[in-house]
Automatic annotation (TrEMBL):
Pfam families: Amidohydro_2 (PF04909). It comes from the Bacteria. This is Amidohydrolase family protein. It comes from Microbispora hainanensis. InterPro entries: Amidohydro-rel (IPR006680), Metal_Hydrolase (IPR032466). SUPFAM superfamilies: Metallo-dependent hydrolases (SSF51556). Residues 3-261 form the Amidohydrolase-related domain.
């Protein structure tokens, strides 16, 4: 089974299914999104979507009210294609810590979703995810995915590794290969057994090759669609791996194990 470990709801969802079919991807982890760059028709409309993205990943729009439309879109996509999508849900990091556990119990575990993410703490404040990890641990170790590209800092990655060591029962996934800090991300994930590294948006092919070589059992194929393309992301993994067990693990075997599908 080939699993895209990182994707966001598309508008329309049928376009996403077409991309998965074209790439030969069986299933995709699906996160809610508050921005839709695929809706843009010209540079100016794309600037508007990317401005909203900057707010989201910069942690300036994390209150519960900001998520409602995105959650409705996620629900609709999961209901329409339960055989293709694996639902994850973000947690508003602006909630008081004592309410985060209630949110996870009600909105994630209570709705049968498979994990939490993609979390976007403000730069320099990765420690805000600690109550999320605590709540995930209370539910048997739900996987937690954290945004890894800019504006995430190298210090944020180190904080995430410290938190992962404090909650070893929770699989903590750093997305987008850690962005500009990919060498730090590879080393931290390699040395922290409960961490995983998702490979989308890599801008250097040898970064993907090195990540898989250093962490063969905890690297995950992902596209970050619609920002990336599942076919291109799959081709990148296949370019740096030979056919066989290792490639199969990266393209889906590890994700299936992580998600309880294997």
């Amino acid at each position: 089974m080939i699993i895209d470990a990182h994707s966001h709801v598309h508008d329309p969802v049928a376009d996403h299914i077409a991309l998965l079919d074209d790439a030969g991807v069986d299933r995709a982890v699906l996160f809610p999104t508050r921005t839709h760059p695929e809706r843009a028709t010209d540079l100016e409309s794309l600037r508007g979507e990317m401005a909203a993205l900057d707010e989201a990943i910069g942690g300036r729009a994390n209150g519960p009210g900001r998520y409602q439309a995105a959650y409705r879109e996620l629900d609709a996509a999961l209901a329409a294609h339960p055989d293709r999508f694996i639902g994850f849900l973000s947690v508003p990091l602006d909630l008081p810590p004592e309410h985060i556990a209630e949110w996870i119990d009600r909105e994630v575990a209570g709705r049968g979703l498979r994990g939490i993410g993609e979390l976007t703490p403000p730069p320099g404040q990765a420690g805000l995810i600690e109550p999320v990890l605590r709540g995930a641990a209370d539910h048997g170790g739900l996987p937690v995915v954290v945004h890894g590209f800019a504006p995430t800092t190298a210090d944020d990655l180190r904080t995430l590794a410290e938190l992962a060591r404090a909650y070893p029962s929770v699989p903590l996934v750093i997305s987008q290969l850690g962005g500009l800090h990919w060498m730090d991300a590879i080393a931290l994930v390699r040395d922290t057994p409960s961490m995983f590294l998702e490979l989308s948006t890599a801008y250097l092919i040898f970064a993907v090759r090195l990540a898989i070589a250093e962490i063969p059992d905890r690297t995950l194929f992902g596209s970050d669609a619609p920002y990336g393309d599942p076919a291109l992301a799959r081709a990148t993994v296949e370019r740096v791996t030979a056919p066989g067990e290792l490639r199969d693990r990266v393209l889906g075997g590890t994700a299936a194990r992580l998600l309880g599908l294997a």
